[in-house]
Specification:
seven-stranded mixed beta sheet; 9 strands; disordered N terminus; alpha+beta
Length: 408
């Protein structure tokens, strides 16, 4: 039996995304491929006259028929159709970015519903499961993480599962389904369960490819935590961008839970193999854990934005405190310089005041100390006392004036 859950997944406790199961019905209850084609493709546009009845070899990635757990390699799609009918096995046709003629050729053979064909051609669908009679149409969104740019690249895979066929249509580089074929071909017991085993294995591979995405996001979140507390100025932009990628990844996973719940409700109705039921229940559990982990990533990134805002605010407050302290220190220095300047000004005032006081008697003495012949005051009897009184009076007046002006 194909071992679905690898040891690596158990160590990482990484969740897996849910798969969708289709039922198997007996050939007696089924309409013929031609009747299905006429009934479901009646109003599809007619293919151009140049379109062949088989898909272009460039679009066919792999083509095989599996009968009793053994692979048979047909040379053409026509031979695939014949072997499916003769060997009572099922065919698995893998297409990569096919055009309309490629898909309509296969749709006509297997009776694929025209609405599902249109969805498969247009792509850009959300993850979903639609049932058209005995055929399931499943849209899956594989993902890979580009670590250098921290981008989650989400691809698209369409899977048609019928009673005796599986058609996989890839619109992106991922997932690589070659390992899926090898793993199934190494497990004949699982292949004998029919097309449902292919659907399970494809989903299992997609879930395996989610593991590096979860690990890459977790590693980047650890780096962001370090940046937040180191005060990196660019961390806010990184948190926002990574949060957008997590949301995009989550959109590829969350719809699968509803689809799987619908499938689980049909286990009894469509008599799904018990072993496949167990495997799919395990996938459902892993899907829930994937969503929970993505929710945790989203909440953690939101908390990081809040913490980063708080850290930035704290750094700004600290910077403002340092600037305030520097401003206060500068003001204190200016105050001291101002006080020193005022003290110096007081000394200058005192010197200037005494200079003015002493200047008055010096001026009188200098004037009357000149030895001119014609100086009437020199021959006055009261000239000398008058000069002394004048010098003292001017000096006293200046002294009182300077006191009043608080220069002394």
């Amino acid at each position: 039996m194909f071992d679905k859950v690898s040891a690596w997944w158990r160590e990482r406790d990484a969740p897996e995304v849910v798969s969708r199961l289709t039922r198997r019905r007996s050939a007696a209850d089924e309409p013929s491929p031609a009747a299905m084609a006429r009934a479901r493709l009646a109003h599809l546009p007619e293919p151009p006259a140049t379109v062949e009845a088989h898909a272009d070899d460039d679009a066919v990635v792999d083509n095989a028929v599996y009968a009793d757990g053994t692979r048979i390699d047909p040379e053409t799609l026509e031979q695939t159709y014949e072997l499916v009918r003769e060997r009572h096995g099922f065919g698995w046709i893998g297409l990569y970015r096919p055009d309309r003629a490629d898909v309509e050729s296969i749709a006509a053979e297997f009776g694929l519903h025209e609405l599902a064909v249109e969805d498969a051609l247009e792509a850009h669908q959300r993850p979903k499961l639609e049932r058209y009679g005995d055929t399931l149409f499943i849209v899956l969104r594989p993902a890979r993480y580009v670590d250098p740019t921290e981008v989650v690249e989400v691809g698209e895979l369409h899977v048609f599962v019928g009673r005796d066929f599986v058609v996989t249509i890839r619109h992106s580089e991922t997932p690589d389904l070659r390992p899926v074929r090898r793993r199934l071909e190494e497990s004949p017991d699982l292949l004998r369960l029919g097309p449902e085993s292919v659907l399970y294995a494809v989903l299992d591979q997609i879930v395996d490819d989610y593991a590096p995405v979860l690990r890459g996001v977790a590693d980047d979140i650890d780096e962001i935590e370090t940046q937040v507390f180191e005060g990196d100025a660019e961390v806010s932009r990184r948190i926002y961008q990574l949060g957008r990628e997590v949301i995009e990844f989550r959109r590829a996973v969350v719809p699968l839970t509803d689809v799987f719940a619908a499938l689980r409700s049909g286990f009894d109705k469509y008599k799904v193999d018990l072993e496949l039921q167990r495997l799919l229940r395990d996938v459902e559990d892993h899907t829930v854990r994937v969503v929970e982990r993505l929710d945790a990533f989203r909440e953690l990134l939101n908390n990081m934005l809040t913490v980063n805002a708080a850290v930035v605010g704290q750094r700004q407050n600290e910077e403002m405190r340092r600037l305030t302290e520097a401003s206060l220190a500068q003001n204190e220095e200016m105050r001291r310089l101002s006080e020193a300047s005022l003290a110096q000004n007081e000394e200058v005032k005192k010197i200037s005041a005494w200079a003015a006081i002493l200047f008055a008697p010096t001026l009188v003495g200098t004037v009357y100390g000149m030895n001119f012949d014609h100086m009437p005051e020199l021959h006055w009897v009261v000239g000398y006392p008058l000069a002394l009184v004048l010098m003292v009076g001017v000096s006293v007046g200046l002294h009182r004036f300077m006191k009043w002006r608080r220069w002394l």
